[in-house]
Amino acid sequence: MSKSKKAQIAGQVFIYILAVVIAALVIIYGYNAIKGFIDKQRQIEIIQFKTDIQSAVRTVSTDYGSVKKFEHAIPGEAICILDINYQGNRDSTCLCDKTICSEDEIWQYDPIICDSWQSTKDQNIFIIPQIETPILASPLKVDNGYLCLKAPKNQITLRIEGFGNHAKISEWQI
């Protein structure tokens, strides 16, 4: 009789261990699935933003004098828009030299974006924190060569003005 009780105890321990292993596998699978869904949602948001801003710039740029209010959610905390054809001194901007930034502007300093602005012409919109998807919206101009805006609640509001052969982007002023 004592042998059967010992076997029952060993069987119960095996069942508990098996239950813990199965629960751990379910939790790991669920975590990975949710993480995958979140990553795919972020990719969709990036692609949607990219197509919407490219379309808005292209549409408004050919219509002289038209103004469009561009409101959009972005998958980031801030956005920097660069004028890749800017003729001024790029090194003397807050984006490239943090010594000239005020306390309120210091967050704009980004050597990676500055380097890209000075060397390439395949990206002029950067979502911060950095994303891998290059965004090029053209033809566009920006006063002082660049515009960086914080995105409270991941929302931005831009003013896009048409000039016939390019669009000018600025912050929407209320």
Question: How would you describe this structure to a colleague?
Answer:
The protein has a four-stranded mixed beta sheet, with helices on one face. It has one domain. The chain has helices spanning 2-61, 111-119, and strands spanning 67-73, 78-82, 125-128, 140-142, 146-150, 155-162, 167-171. With 174 residues, it is an alpha+beta fold. The N and C termini lie far apart (86 Å). The radius of gyration is 26 Å and the shape is elongated.
Biggest sheet strand line-up: 1-6-7-4
* Number of separate structural domains: 1
Residue windows where pLDDT falls under 50 for at least 5 positions:
none
Strand content: 15-25%
Determine the mean pLDDT.
86
Helix content: 25-40%
Biggest sheet architecture: 4 strands, mixed
Q: End-to-end span in angstroms?
A: 86 Å
- The strand count comes to 7
Number of helices: 2
Given the C-alpha coordinates, what overall shape results? elongated
- Helices and strands, in order, run as HEEHEEEEE
Secondary structure class reads alpha+beta
The value of Rg in angstroms is 26 Å
